[in-house]
Write a structure and sequence with these properties.
Mean pLDDT of chain A: 93
CATH superfamily of chain B: Ferritin, core subunit, four-helix bundle
Strand content of chain B: under 5%
Oligomer: heterotrimer
Largest sheet of chain B: none
Number of domains of chain B: 1
Order of helices and strands of chain A: HHHHHHHHHEEHHH
Largest interface: A-B, 49 and 48 residues
Number of helices of chain B: 9
Radius of gyration of chain A: 21 Å
Structural class of chain A: mainly alpha
Radius of gyration of chain B: 18 Å
Number of helices of chain A: 12
CATH architecture of chain B: Up-down Bundle
Chains: A mainly alpha (313), B mainly alpha (246), C alpha+beta (120)
CATH class of chain B: Mainly Alpha
Chain lengths: 313, 246, 120
């Protein structure tokens, strides 16, 4: 087959909603876009373990400790599923991880914000996971088979994450004055960054068009962001808390909420590495990876020794 | 009337599993490879789960409104009765693995006895936990062998870990006063334990140290300086905001 | 000339049909990749669930237990080192699978039978 016909076959599959599988012909750019997006997604899961992981040792009850530990561990699992999906495209996990540590690969900027109180754990579950889920549900229908299948697994497991976050805030919202303040303060700090998670405005997003055409992405950044605002603006009423946005108001004609403007300077600054915790996050991941190197080598060496022994016998 | 020995023994079992669970949990997000990050977190979840069962049982014994959390969060380090071994620092992966192995190999034997205990609740918790502990023992044994018989570097780290941790292994076999009438035969456990540990260390091309001075005290609330820091972190929220629901 | 994929995880490498440009390096510390198959309950087949890294089969099974059965998803695990899986080539799909399309007489619905004949 010539490259031209291969490309047509590929485009016909996309058009007909037939998934692309690892061994199928695919354009270079499709492969690269998927590698970039899936590995960024995987990195986000792994780096995302850090801010929440901060509070495992300090969780306020044994039950909360177990929930948080299980949740952060789930993120590790999700990172693993995604690295695996990425590997079907011909790049190893180690290579992708090296790109993270060198700063070449990005991850979700949200995780460059600090977790300053226990309420942040609830706010992350509710807002950050809530925002992530909107994106992830869409991605269960993405055109690359292994990515879509990983997302199905992830969405199934994620469903408890947002619920536990909201439930934990609900307890705070009914607690003492100090707990209520802690809750409102966490919402104030996490609201805008979670809106930024949907990425730049559609008019400024460089990767979106082609990704939509190839059905890697299936909804635009702005569409997803609006559904998120509409959802959270209703849910927060149950907490008797407020979103930190004076312009937030129901718009009857549009049948959706109007709301204020994201601070895009802050958005770009955090992406460029100037967020409050960019350096700490990468440093923590690099440290774990480097300090784990002797362990990985030792285990591999031992396995090889054992095979050689068997051969010798 | 409450049986003080049973109560203290229950707390001892609870504290030991909680502190090791807390220690292992610190690996979550920092493990040497994702698969093992997940594995050690599973062990941590098991251990903290076990501690909750023991604390809950202690609470029913005390019957004064105490809860699993009041025991875990509101007692001071002098009241904690965990073994010294489990409060030792994570160190590197070798030290964490060895600590797990030395403990799991002991816990496995202990819970085998405990599951037949005359106290039905302790027996039931032990029986349920034993399935988890069997896996912890398998997992940690394999890692001890891998690291001992892996590279020179990993072997050296295991040697160092043995030097660090071995002095804390004697305490487990010396019964505290509250332990004496619990129907547990620590001497018979010691014998089987030493054989198991010797077998695994031998397969790992390592050796069991001999004539080492053994530290004691944990079971009676005399700890190493480590525990204070562990509890400071663990208990911080409950102590800063007393009397809240979380 | 283009650089084609050098390393494929799901089976044989199609010689020059990769359509990509990444060359993977084998590294000193990376553990081999394994495919994991899980039987979710007795009576069902093992089903491909994903992959993971492990140094040997024993560790691969344990890792699969820790990674893929955290929510009681399985009662039995198979692992196969990914390089040992051989796969058909997508380019052969037409010649391999389409000839079955016109063999409709293999399907029970092909046969028109009187309604009175029940249970067949």
């Amino acid at each position: 087959m010539t490259e031209q016909t291969s490309e047509n076959v590929f485009l016909q599959k996309i058009e007909a909603e037939i998934k692309i599988e690892p061994k199928d012909w695919m354009p270079d750019a499709y492969r690269k876009t998927n590698i970039r997006q899936i590995s960024q997604h995987a990195h986000s899961e792994i780096v995302g373990m850090l801010p929440e992981g901060n509070w495992i040792s300090r969780a306020p009850s044994l039950k909360r400790k177990l929930i948080l530990l299980a949740k952060v561990q789930d993120e590790a699992g999700h990172g693993l599923y995604l690295y695996s999906a990425c590997e079907t495209l011909g790049i190893t996990r180690e290579e992708t991880i090296n790109d993270l540590h060198s700063g070449k690969a990005k991850y979700a900027s949200i995780f460059n914000y600090p977790t300053l109180s226990w309420a942040d754990i609830g706010a992350i579950g509710w807002l950050v996971d809530g925002a992530a889920i909107m994106n992830q549900v869409m991605l269960t229908r993405t055109s690359y088979g292994p990515y879509a299948r990983a997302m199905v697994k992830i969405c199934k497991e994620e469903s408890f994450h947002q619920r536990q976050g909201f439930e934990s805030l609900l307890v705070l919202s009914k607690g003492t004055e100090a707990q209520k303040q802690m809750c409102q303060d966490a919402i104030n700090r996490w609201w805008w960054p979670s809106l930024m998670m949907f990425g730049p405005k559609d008019s400024e997003s460089t990767n979106s068009d082609q990704s939509m055409k190839w059905k890697i992405k299936r909804k635009s950044n702005d569409e997803l962001r609006q559904s998120f605002v509409d959802m959270i603006a209703e849910q927060i009423k149950l907490l008797s808390m407020k979103l930190p946005d004076d312009k937030l108001k129901w718009n009857k004609e549009k049948n959706q909420y109007d709301w204020g403007e994201i601070n895009w300077d802050e958005f770009w600054n955090v992406i460029k590495g100037n967020g409050p915790c960019n350096k700490e996050r990468i440093a923590a991941r690099s440290k774990a990876w480097e300090e784990g190197e002797w362990v990985r080598i030792a285990a591999k060496t031992y396995a090889e020794k054992k095979i050689n022994k068997q051969v010798a016998v | 009337m409450m049986n003080n020995n049973l109560f203290n023994y229950t707390l001892h079992l609870a504290d030991t599993t909680l502190i090791l669970g807390q220690r292992n949990a610190a690996w979550c997000g920092h493990g040497p490879v994702l698969e093992q990050d997940i594995a050690i977190t599973n062990i941590s979840l098991d251990l903290i789960g076990q501690s909750r069962s023991f604390y809950q049982y202690a609470a029913t014994q005390k019957a004064d409104g105490s809860t699993e959390d009041s025991f875990a969060y509101l007692r001071s380090e002098r009241e904690f009765k965990n073994c010294l071994l489990v409060e030792q620092p994570n160190g590197d992966w070798a030290q964490t693995i060895l600590r797990q192995f030395l403990f799991s190999s002991f816990q496995h034997l202990l819970f085998q006895q405990l599951q037949n205990n005359k106290d039905a609740t302790l027996a039931a918790i032990a029986e349920k936990s034993l399935k988890e502990v069997t896996y912890h023992l398998r997992w940690s044994s394999e890692w001890v062998i891998r690291l001992g018989d892996g590279t020179e570097e990993s072997r050296n780290k295991m040697l160092k870990a043995i030097t660090e941790l071995w002095p804390f292994t004697g305490e487990q076999f010396i019964p505290a006063t509250y332990e004496e009438n619990m129907g547990i035969n620590l001497l018979s456990i010691k014998e089987v334990w030493l054989k198991k540990v010797t077998d695994i260390l031998t397969e790992a091309t390592l050796q069991v140290p001999e004539n080492i001075f053994m530290h004691t005290g944990g079971k009676n609330g005399i700890h190493t300086e480590q525990l204070g820091f562990i509890l400071t972190e663990l208990q911080y929220i409950q102590k800063t905001y007393p009397g809240c629901e979380w | 000339m283009k650089n084609f994929i050098q390393k494929f995880y799901y089976g044989d490498i199609p010689e020059e049909k990769g359509g990509g440009a990444i060359i993977s390096k084998n590294t000193k510390t990376e553990w081999p990749l394994w495919e994991v198959f899980i039987r979710s309950k007795q009576g069902l087949d093992h089903k491909h669930i994903g992959s993971l890294h492990a140094t040997d089969a024993k560790m691969a099974i344990e890792n699969a237990r820790d990674v893929y059965t955290r929510r009681m998803e399985g009662v039995s695990i198979w692992v196969v080192e990914s390089k040992n899986i051989h796969a058909s080539n997508p380019d052969d799909a037409e010649s391999l699978y389409e000839p079955a399309n016109d063999k409709i007489y293999r399907h029970p619905t092909f046969y028109q039978l009187p309604d009175e004949l029940s249970h067949m």
